[in-house]
Amino acid sequence: MQTIQVRTTQNVFIQYPLASVGDRILAYLFDRVVVIAFMIALGTFLYYTNARNEWIWIALLGFPYLFYSVFFEIFMNGQTLGKYLLKIRVIRLNGTPATIGDYVLRWVFAIIDFGFLGGAIALILVAAGGKGQRLGDLVAGTTVIKLVEQKEITAEQVFVTAETEYQPTFTQAVQLNERDIELIQRALEVNRDTGNAAPMLAVTEKVKTQLGIQTDLPPIKLLYTLIKDFNHLTSR
After folding, report:
1. Has residue 37 got a pLDDT over 60?
2. What average pLDDT does range 103-126 have in this prediction?
3. Residue 187 · residue 203 · CB < 8 Å
4. What are residue 144's phi and psi, to 5 degrees?
5. How far is 143 from 97, CA to CA, in rounded Å?
6. d(Cα 94, Cα 9) in Å, to the nearest integer?
7. Helix, strand, or coil here: 25?
8. Which of 120, 145, 223, 226 can bridge 16 by disulfide, Cβ–Cβ 3.0-4.6 Å?
9. DSSP state, 118?
């Protein structure tokens, strides 16, 4: 699976799987079907309610056609109905959620991406660019990632069994309590399930400050090591 390396504001590199071209095409087609179905339903309603003002028709039918994608991306955190169905999402290249301005830029340049050559411009840029970006993404500094499903991990799997011969890396882990470990677990689960690293990074900084730890270990490895150390130290 093609991935993109994103550098966060904490200078941590995270690998995100890029949404495939196929997923993005299917999401786009599904969104088009939704828009067309809505316009047909709305047009039927206007016809049978004897709405004769052409400006009402233009306004009500034009709104979903023009603003569907930007509306849903703003209010669904980077997803349209099609993207939600295919489990893909728009994010910024720095790993943070896209802003309203980013969504608007993507929407404006969609006219070029999809308005000419039947969407071939967008397809070529996404397939050849290396970061899964169409023109709108290049301008906005965004890309589209795949929200990879993970198997549910039980508490027994997270709170690893203490090993008799295991040597703790951080003896300070004994200063943690069950509530701290639960918070660490939840932050790791959010990162694993959604690709949102912010809670994990915040917990990492909090724990490092609390325990006085100085290490170059990546946040994920550090947190799992602390869980393992805690289990070992408190089970003796």
Report:
1. yes
2. 88
3. yes
4. -125, 125
5. 11
6. 7
7. helix
8. 145
9. G
Q: Above pLDDT 90, what percent of the chain? A: 39
The residues spanned by each domain of the chain are 3-146, 155-235
What are 41's two structure tokens?
Answer: 């339903």
The H or E element that residue 203 is part of is helix 198-211
Q: How far apart are CA 104 and CA 63, in angstroms?
A: 15
Q: Which of 98, 124, 137, 100 is nearest to 25 (CA)?
A: 124
- What are 63-96's pLDDT values in tens digits? 888 899 999 999 999 999 999 999 999 998 877 7
How many Å apart are CA 137 and CA 141, to the nearest integer?
5
Residue in the structure block whose two tokens are 């306004």: 59
Q: If you ran DSSP here, which 8-state letter would residue 99 be given? A: P
Closest residue by Cα to residue 18 from 116, 159, 126, 138:
126
Q: Residue 5 pLDDT more than 80?
A: no
What is the model's pLDDT at position 157? 47
Do the Cβ atoms of 173 and 230 come closer than 8 Å? yes
Using the CB atoms, write b or e for 171-210: b if 16+ within 10 Å. Answer: ebbeebeeebbebbbebbbbbbeebbbbbbbebbeebbee
SS3 134: coil
- Assign 2 to helix, strand or coil: coil
